[in-house]
Design a protein that fits this description.
Elements lengths: L18 E12 L2 E13 L4 E5 L6 H8 L7 E6 L2 E2 H6 L3 E4 L11 H11 L4 H14 L15 H13 L5 E5 L7 H18 L2 E6 L2 H7 L2 E6 L4 E7 L16 H15 L12
Parallel strand pairs: 3-8, 3-9, 6-7, 7-8
Antiparallel strand pairs: 1-2, 1-4, 4-5, 9-10
Helix pairs in contact: 3-4, 3-5, 4-5, 7-8
The protein binds adenosine-5'-diphosphate and magnesium ion.
Magnesium ion binds next to helix 1.
């Protein structure tokens, strides 16, 4: 399969970090006063790196992702995506986005949903068709290309959304709880799929999740955040490199449980008492 990097050939920005967030703060003005959503955020995501953002509800995960995507601007600090200001990266379509809701157009087929960004950017019909076929294969939906979203399971719809996010070969994927609405079994399957896709495309991923095992399974690094104002309290390397197969066996090795425990302790601020509070 030929899913090369976005701007093919010798790349002017090769070796550039995917995302550099420097001393970012975000305050929202509300009727009841200012809400400080993020403070003192510093984060660098390397090319091709998989980083999970985890933290309690309201700690600013979505806000941080939206700032990186240039869907909102920081109150202070700077954000660069592939060495450019976030708004230029947005204009250049340097990244793809996927959220918890697949957000498909119900009147369009799977193929036509995947093709949408290519259409919007004037990609010729023949090239579009070839690219859509390639993407449908990548997410395992070749046999469903002519179906409509309401004929698909939640997991399949989410795979369409991921294919659409990958349509323009972004070197960066921004994902906000993309598997949050899926049942546990589908979710684990999607995690395996996503790590395969990330490895095949070489894309960096910033992945927001509530799930500790999901963060550990997918990531090179897990960024732990605390609420009010949202700050990064700890960054945990999983130590599972690109050569580690993200398969069912990984979920059962001691190193996996180790990292899960580290992230859990980081989230709670202290070692978890043996009586053990569970996450969900
Ligand atoms: N547009 C907004 N206006 C006002 N407050 C907001 C807005 N977006 C987010 N917030 C507040 O910022 C904080 C972080 O929100 P969010 O980034 O959605 O958290 P998370 O995704 O971690 O659950 C919350 O207190 C939330 O209420
Ligand atoms: Mg959120």
């Amino acid at each position: 399969m030929t899913l090369g990097h976005a701007h093919g050939g010798p790349d002017a920005t090769a070796g550039t970090d995917s995302v550099v967030v420097r001393d970012v703060a975000k305050t929202f003005a509300t009727k009841t006063g200012d809400v400080s959503a993020l403070e003192g955020i510093d984060l660098t995501v390397a090319e091709g790196e998989f980083v999970a953002l985890i933290g309690p509800s309201g700690c600013g995960k979505s806000t941080l992702l939206r700032l990186i995507a240039d869907l909102d601007s920081p109150t202070s600090g700077t954000i660069e995506v592939f060495g450019k200001p976030a708004h230029r990266a947005r204009r250049d379509q340097d990244y793809g986005i996927a959220f918890q809701q697949a957000g498909l157009l119900p009147w369009r087929t799977v193929a036509a949903n995947i093709a949408l960004p290519l259409e919007l950017h004037g990609v010729a019909a023949a090239e579009r068709k070839a690219r859509v076929a390639e993407l449908a294969e990548l997410v395992g939906l070749t046999d469903f290309a002519d179906r409509h979203p309401d004929q698909l399971s939640g997991g399949m719809q989410q795979r369409v959304a991921i294919a659409r996010a990958l349509a323009e070969r972004p070197r960066l994927l921004l994902m906000d709880e993309p598997f949050g609405a899926l049942d546990e079994m589908t979710r684990e399957r999607m995690q395996t799929e996503l790590s395969r896709i990330a490895a095949e495309t070489g894309a960096a991923v910033v992945f927001v999740t509530h799930s500790i095992p999901e963060a550990v399974f997918l990531s090179d690094r897990v960024v732990v955040m605390s609420p009010r104002p949202g700050r990064i309290t700890e960054v945990i390397e999983t130590g599972f490199g690109k050569d580690t197969a993200r398969d069912e066996a990984l979920r059962e090795v001691p190193a996996f449980f180790d990292r899960v425990t580290s992230v859990r302790e980081a989230l709670h601020g202290t070692p978890v008492p043996t009586s053990g509070r569970e996450e969900r």
